[in-house]
Amino acid sequence: MSTTHERVISMVDADVVDRWLTESRSSGCSVSRGRRTELSALSANINRELASTDSGIRDARTLLADLKMQRCALVTVLDLVNNLHAPVRRLPVEILTMIFYLCVSSGRSRDKAGIFDAVRIASVCASWRKTALADTRLWTDIHVEYMWDSVAADIREREMVQTFLLRSGTNPLSLSVMGGISAVLHEPVTLTVLRNVAPRCKTLLLLDVDETHYDSLMSVGDGFRPTSLHIGNRLMENALDLDAISFKSSVERLRVTLVGGQYDSEWKTVDCLDIGDLGTKSTLSERLPSCTSLRSLTVRFGDSTITYPALVNNSLRLLEVILSNPTSCDPTKLFRNAMLPKLQHLVIQGDWTSWDACCHHGWNDAVRMLTSRCAITSLSLNGVYGTDCCLVKLLEALPLLQSLVFIALRPERTVVTQNFKAVFHRLTFRNFGDRAIGNPLCRYLTNLQVELNNGYFDEGALADMIMSRSRLLPYQQLWEWNKLRHVVVAVNGGYSDVGPLHELGHLRNTEDFTLLVIAPNHHSTQSTLISAIKYQD
């Protein structure tokens, strides 16, 4: 019996299997009775051992499943522990709320009314969702795009608007409505919800909305009184007459990019006007809306601009000119008959990569023509320069300048490499013995903000200029020149903390002088520097 047991135990060995295979082949067709008895006992033992093995496999599988479940539970607990230990958990709820708000209210997010970023934030985790739902400001931008497409899309839009309306609390709302090529074939059920939106709507964006879409939207009642209105149409078949707008008296900020420039209405309360388009079609007209309270005007010139608005206004203080290319605007035609007696701030933006020679004289002469009728004290330039000589001549046309913002183009986007050494030298206050080289530019400058690229500007010349303007000599005080009080230098491209600029560190502690040298993200700095001059009074 022991021999049989040993055979069963060793049945898994390869040699044993080969032996039994050989015996099976050599035994032929006749097996003795004793041999059959022995094989029967052996077969029974093998079956019992097989049953025991199957039972062990089932137990092992059960144990493996339990271990896998235990492992998943441990991984879940570990993730929760790591989440609780993560640096983001150290942020106070107030800081996290502010981050969420800045994300949703950013320009990139607001292209779609912030709706998608708000939903994404609330879908990350339970704690973020709780924080997002607790801040009603995240849900104040409503985007309606498909309510005229179909009944099914209209129902989804209504549910979305209802959700945002509920989550926004009592905050003012921003409503974006897209018309597109969809015809108004049914009365959208979303309009029933928009009746509650209209009284709280402070910003209204009408994109590709024709008169049919507008009439359908206004059917909710006479509740719209937005203070900010943006009307943009890129579809030639869509046309909206501004005379049809029924709430002109409440609008303070107006942006219009209608194809054909249908500006035939009176907008007496508009404080900020943005007109034109940077696309291939011209959307400017000769006549601007009459705005007796207008303080800020943005004019955008596309590739094929042939019409120039008559710049005549007695209240305008800020003029922003945005160009798609150097030839999209003739400054002489723009400023020839301009009458802007209260204009103080001039902003010029554009990508002038193709200007590889000293050919900005048209702008210099045009700005000089403009300043003969007003006193411009603030200038912002973003990418609009050709050579140092061009920039010097432009500054010569602005003798009363007090604030200057200058953002240089990236080196890979320019035709000619500039170091602005000549500009910095002309801005430097020389001592009395050096005055023979010429009078400095912008003698009344107090605020300077520049964004330059590492390796593409003369740092020593810039540092000398800042140093010379940080204090006034007696004769400079006698002539009532101004010294710099606020200087921001942003350097792109791996700027190190050594060099002539950082040797001016002792000036940072001066009571009446602020110096900030940073190496920030390009796009965020650009918007910051432009805003610094654009929105100051």
Question: Could you explain the architecture of this structure?
Answer:
- With 537 residues, this protein is α/β, with parallel strands linked by helices.
- Among the domains are: 2-21 and 35-85; 344-537, Alpha-Beta Horseshoe (Leucine-rich repeat, LRR (right-handed beta-alpha superhelix)), CATH 3.80.10.
- It is 37% helix and 15% strand.
- It has a 14-stranded parallel sheet.
- The N and C termini lie far apart (108 Å).
- Mean pLDDT is 78; it is low at 522-537.
- This is F-box domain-containing protein.
- It comes from Dendrothele bispora (strain CBS 962.96).
Rg over C-alpha atoms, rounded to the nearest angstrom = 38 Å
Helix tally equals: 17
Can you summarize the main beta sheet?
A: 14 strands, parallel
Helix fraction, binned, reads: 25-40%
Strand order of the largest sheet: 1-2-3-4-5-6-7-8-9-10-11-12-13-14
Q: What value does the average pLDDT take?
A: 78
How many distinct beta strands? Answer: 14
Look at the structure and give the CATH class of one domain: Alpha Beta
**Can you tell me the CATH architecture of one domain?**
Alpha-Beta Horseshoe
C-alpha end-to-end distance: 108 Å
